[in-house]
């Protein structure tokens, strides 16, 4: 992100200028994108003009209630498997707030760019999307969540 934000995209000469760049993330990329936003904001660096996330996994501890309620419906993501993936990624444990943005203090979510989240209403990541949107909105950030009926994980 930093390179493109600073230098632009040389392989796409007609690309918009870096000051108009947005951020897109899907699934586990949601945690990466949100962590990037929070780190850049904390450092006083420029932020993308907008963010779009599809089915973001924002709490690698999988503690949202939708992991229990929707596990029978979400054929792609299962809590036990995801906890194992998170543990392997983090080298054990899942309580790292840098890797799990929902574990950040609520005030961290102030000043984020406008964010659009798409999520299925029967997937296990539903509560991650809702919790992020609620926390960010309470801090004055503009977040819209579009819940898609009967749609599974992206």
Automatic annotation (TrEMBL):
UniProt keyword Hydrolase, yes or no: yes
Key word Cytoplasm present: no
GO MF annotation list: triacylglycerol lipase activity
InterPro entries per the UniProt record, alphabetical: AB_hydrolase_3 (IPR013094), AB_hydrolase_fold (IPR029058), GDXG_lipolytic_enzyme (IPR050300)
Keywords: Hydrolase
Gene3D superfamilies associated with the record: alpha/beta hydrolase (3.40.50.1820)
Name assigned to this protein: Alpha/beta hydrolase fold-3 domain-containing protein
């Amino acid at each position: 992100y930093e390179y493109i934000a600073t230098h632009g995209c040389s392989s796409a000469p007609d690309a918009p200028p870096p000051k108009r760049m947005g951020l897109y993330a899907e699934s586990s990329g949601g945690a990466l994108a949100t962590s990037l936003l929070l780190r850049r904001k904390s450092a006083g660096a420029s932020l993308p003009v907008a963010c779009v996330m599809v089915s973001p996994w924002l709490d690698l501890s999988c503690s949202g209630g939708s992991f229990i309620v929707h596990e029978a419906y979400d054929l792609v993501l299962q809590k036990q498997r995801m906890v194992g993936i998170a543990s392997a990624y983090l080298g054990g444990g899942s309580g790292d707030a840098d890797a799990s943005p929902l574990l950040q203090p609520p005030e961290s979510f102030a000043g984020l760019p406008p964010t659009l989240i798409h999520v299925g209403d029967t997937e296990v990541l539903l509560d991650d999307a809702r919790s992020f949107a609620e926390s960010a909105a309470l801090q004055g950030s503009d977040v819209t969540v579009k819940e898609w009926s009967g749609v599974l994980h992206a």
